[in-house]
């Protein structure tokens, strides 16, 4: 591992991304507190005069009024009556991200998309000589090509972790350059919560070892942190913090799934059952696109007073018939606990235990390889046709797009949707 003497990493985080895209697109929202909610029904009060659900993001004006990103809508409205609630538009945010990243690439190549609103870049020699100008060039490009409403904060430092920390030090529209020769400098006044990769469990372990602040952590030994963490990640964190060039571990894809909170009028069991098929079909499509098969399916349904969970092993499959068949089996099993008249407010379906498409083991218990292969051909054909038509032209069974207009395209902060997720 190399101790980095220069600024090699740039971390960029758009400020209040969803809300600022809304403000960029709709001038009536500019300069006003805006909250983004999950669906259209949650923008208005219900029959009791209460705003249902929670905001998933809010604008800088809303933050200045004391609101936070994730917050009950009713509480937000009480604290800030001028707050305007708008329903999320995942496809718009994705297109905005594409446009913004295109502009940034005119200034500097993008190394990684970390989430819908965060990216990292590798800083070249020119950028190392004059990091301020590089950061300003990015900001100017966005302002001139896209608009003034969408701003970003930029952090620059020796490695990705330090540039991410720097990025969060000055928001919104900030620029923080944390030069390796200034370390530890501003790090010492941070709290453990500000450091990516230090969770509540880690904090407890640090405290128990007498490491109660950043100064103590800075003075600790890498082996000590490794021991406290119980794995090599502790040591990696120590080196990253001290300005070493710590390479990111290749992350192994663990699951494909969707979980969704349902609008109040779509919580009846038959509706949720139909909707869960759409969610799972979309997850299976993404799984196939990335070249995996699943050996397990998880199922969760949250009712008002309890959460029902179940799972099923699958014989390393990727086609819709096998996967949807397993889902229906799970619903049948649920019938002993979930009544047809129950209300389900959140549903989750997740494909787990993934294997590379190439390495399907013949499952001796199933003897179904020739049938399976025919279903796989059919599924591939369906995927191709849907891609060609740019929407779901063909599906196995009904496709009741109700809550489903956003079924596969919900924007999460960690997964960047592709255009195909929206049909
Ligand atoms: Mg952001």
Output the keywords.
single chain; 423 residues; alpha+beta; Alpha-Beta Plaits; MutS, DNA mismatch repair protein, domain I; Dna Ligase, domain 1; 3 domains; five-stranded mixed beta sheet; four-stranded mixed beta sheet; binds magnesium ion; DNA-directed DNA polymerase; DNA-directed DNA polymerase activity; UmuC
How would you describe this protein?
- Strands 6-7-1-8-9 form a five-stranded mixed sheet. A four-stranded mixed sheet has the order 4-3-2-5.
- Strand 11 (292-303) and strand 12 form a beta hairpin.
- It has three domains: 9-13 and 93-241, Reverse transcriptase/Diguanylate cyclase domain (Alpha-Beta Plaits, 2-Layer Sandwich); 17-91, MutS, DNA mismatch repair protein, domain I, CATH 3.40.1170.60; 256-422, 2-Layer Sandwich (Dna Ligase, domain 1).
- It is an alpha+beta fold.
- Helices cover 37% and strands 19% of the residues.
- The chain contains 14 helices and 13 strands.
- The two termini are 45 Å apart.
- The structure holds magnesium ion.
- Magnesium ion (MG) binds at residues 13-15, 17, 117.
- It is an enzyme of class 2 (transferase).
The largest beta-sheet arranges its strands as: 6-7-1-8-9
Q: What average pLDDT do the residues reach?
A: 87
Helix amount, in percent?
A: 25-40%
Please, how many helices?
14
Oligomer: single chain
Main beta sheet strand tally, sense and closure: 5 strands, mixed
Q: Which molecules are bound in this entry?
A: magnesium ion
C-alpha Rg, in Å? 24 Å
The top-level CATH class of the largest domain is: Alpha Beta
Give the domain tally: 3
Strand/helix succession: EHEEHEHEHEEHHEHEHHHHEHEEHEH
- Based on secondary structure, the structural category is alpha+beta
Strand proportion = 15-25%
Shape: globular
Query: Which residues sit in consecutive blocks of at least 5 with pLDDT less than 50?
Result: 359-367
